[in-house]
Amino acid sequence: MLLKVMPSTGFQGLQGDDTPEGEDIPSLLHFAAQNGFKDISSVLLQCPGAKRALHTANSQ
Questions:
Q1: CA pair distance 15, 27, nearest whole angstrom
Q2: Quick one: three-class SS letters along the chain?
Q3: pTM score of the predicted model
């Protein structure tokens, strides 16, 4: 169901202008993996941009 409503370009950046400088915010994929959200991680790996996310270093 999530994949049906997923934007074809993938997720936009989720980091807002009000994020304190120097604060690291993990990608949605990194967050899901770090917290054991296996089902969400599996869905995210099917989304546009997943290959790029796999090769992007976590911001932590």
A1: 9
A2: CHHHHCCCCCCCCCCCCCCCCCCCCCCHHHHHHHCCCHHHHHHHCCCCCHHHHHCCCCCC
A3: 0.51
Tell me the domain boundaries of the chain: 24-60
With CA atoms as reference, report the closest residue to 48 among 28, 26, 24, 25: 28
pLDDT tens for each residue of 3-60? 666 555 455 455 455 555 555 566 777 778 877 889 988 988 888 888 887 787 765 4
Residue 2 CB partners (closer than 8 Å, separation 6+) = 43
